[in-house]
Amino acid sequence: MTAAPAANGRIEIDRRMFNPYSKDFIRQPRETWQRLVKEFPVAYHKDLQMWMVNSHEYCAEMLKNNIFTPNYRVWEHAPPAKAEEDKNDYDRVFDHSLFTVSTRDHLKLRKLTMPAFSRPVMGKIDGKIRDLVMECFDSIPADAEEFDVYSTIAEKLPARSIARMVGVPTEMEEFFHEFAVNVVKSTRINLPAKQREDAINGTLPGLKFFLDEIAKRRAAESPGTDFLGSLVSARDGSDQLDDYDIVSIILALITAGSDTATDLHTYVIHGLLSNPEQYQLLREQPELMENAIIELLRWGSFGKFPFFRFASEDQDFHGQQIRKGQAVMINLPSAWHDPAKYPDWDKLDIRRNLEGNLVFGAGAHFCIGTYLVRVQGGLMLTEFMKRFPHAELANGDGEIDYDYNHHNARRITRLKVKTNRQAQRKAA
């Protein structure tokens, strides 16, 4: 299919060109990404009713352009604004979100949250997550010749890691997991309005838990030195975070580091075991870990709908007239496979120079969960390599399967790994 400009000069495509719900696309997306990058760097998707930006250059430009905001209340199909007396806790937290506040308040929030991301606080989180990683691997029987990465690691680790980070008691981790799922769904404009509304209502018990916990911290002699305590005690002159500011940071972390990290674990293992020479290289040079995680995320590219932006005013974007209120999908998976940025885009190379990559976004809204995602991924891969140095994908492809109905990701729901432990023991 080659799209012709519409009568108004708009370049248009439809689901014949890009259908994120297609099983063929979910299994084999790279050909679609290449066509989007080369033929439609920016185009209007008639079926999705939003713009798509697909090239690396254009994605980077839009992420740094403040006219295109992550505030979905600017969206032409956003629900009507509520009167103050009609707002619930979700509405009030959203009023304080990094995605909705003014540029000035956004900078203030970022500055005040810095102590919570300091080395001492992050060191404590590292220790808590390390225990979770060990628990996941210890659950694999010592004589297991195969195990499923999704059910053993990916499904269990991310939400529990965030829960530990923000001070949720162990006995409430299931409660927190449901809360996290609803938080992520509440932000997805590609879902029907009724599903988003149900998800918003589903966040309310969790929001009450955190607001109550913050109140306890404020009433205590000391709010504590953990992540939540650091947010409560943060000061910059007369500025400090109020309760809804703090909960908005927690929601931003959940959005960035919980749902996304589920896919990180399956895709990085799939990527390395699909490229055994790269797995061997990382085992020999573990100092490449941070670069490897970024490259594995680039190469795997698990998102269907990575980022949305909304035009806060009419804008001519490379010859296409984007109207105020229209939604734009910043199609990062296609950008990460753009030959103009990565000539050997289809090659996994953990030594790659990744300067200027967009894996964690760019601009003012650079991913707040970057540290947590990297720590989780690094700890998990280090332990995986230690325990399974000769691992392979079971039956050559890991018997891979996907959740074809997932709202946001090409989620892998089965990835079987052959441990080769018996061969390892015989060799020893």
From TrEMBL:
Keyword list, A-Z = Heme, Iron, Metal-binding, Monooxygenase, Oxidoreductase
Molecular function in Gene Ontology:
heme binding; iron ion binding; monooxygenase activity; oxidoreductase activity, acting on paired donors, with incorporation or reduction of molecular oxygen
Q: Which SUPFAM superfamilies match?
A: Cytochrome P450
InterPro entries for this protein: Cyt_P450, Cyt_P450_B, Cyt_P450_CS, Cyt_P450_sf
**UniProt keyword Iron, yes or no:** yes
What cofactors are annotated for this protein?
Answer: heme
Q: To which protein family does this belong?
A: Belongs to the cytochrome P450 family.
Name of the featured protein: Cytochrome P450
Organism encoding this protein: Hydrocarboniphaga effusa AP103
